[in-house]
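Box 3.1 A note on notation
Throughout this textbook, protein chains are presented in two layers. The first layer is the amino acid sequence; the second is a token string describing backbone geometry. Keep the layers aligned when reading.
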Amino acid sequence: MDQYYRLNKTECREFVGALTSRYQVVAPVKRGEKSFVFARISSPDEIASPEEYIPTIIPPKKYFFPQRETILEYDAVAQRQKAVMEYEKVVIFGVRTCDLAGIQCLNMVFSERPRDVNYLIRKNKLIIIGMECWDYCDEHALCALMDNHLPKGGYDLFFSDLGDYHLIHVNTEVGEEIVRSIGVFTEATGEDLKRLQEFREKKRSAFDTGIDLSHPELMDLFANCEDARVWEELGERCLSCGNCTTVCPTCYCFDVIDEINLDLRTGERFRIWDSCQNEDFAKVAGGESFREERSGRQRHRYLRKFKYPLAKYSRFFCTGCGRCSRACMAQIHIKETIKALIAERAGV
């Protein structure tokens, strides 16, 4: 499946309106001055303007991997239990390439044996419509450094703004069915594809993070940094609030809790997001902790993004979205950390 279509901007409202009449649609919606969230919409007028939309506070992973999810209901007296599968068919509209990369990371993690059936069933009920960005959203983004500023699949449809129209890439049969059922598209021409290629060539030269490192150099930087002084400095600033992991599109740690009802017989088992930045996260029996100090927890978070996934998945688990930097109350910014590691390695 590798087809392209045109959608005139004057017909975008008709397309989104048709989507909302057939599916439950979520899209980036503005909240406050500069904050955005993925929320259900009923009209195209609710969608945030692409020119001002920066990554949402919480990534779209919340639809794949909910913050709280019931996985089992039980009756302790009758010794009965029933697996619970919660899911909805939802169209997620306007997903940026950094978040598409995050979803691909989660797909790999939850597809490993033993496979996470709850995640995989929910994933297959979601329709993803991506949207290309044409400039950095703000100073915290580093998607180009992570090589996530250009689309690499993981969507059903993908929109690229080429001026007076969108060029739509159809990536799946589900996407093809949407194009056919909503008759506002025309087939793309060779000239359209040429314009897309020129547009992306400009992006490659325009996206500059201010960090002059190649992928192999970044890998080497984090392969030999466990004893760096940077972690002590971050530990002194860190508040252990867990904001950075909560907003990260690739953090997937969770705790499993059994909660009994007031009848003291029935209850449910649910999983809830957890964070390696919490003090209790690495505690074991007897109260010992593998990462008692905040510096150790900060180092672990960075290595879980830039070192450990490479051996298993051959990719970074940082997508460059910049959410952790925006959400950090201590103003710990990932770009500054990388620059500090470079300076320390150079002996500065």
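The two ends are 51 Å apart (CA to CA). The chain has a mean pLDDT of 93.
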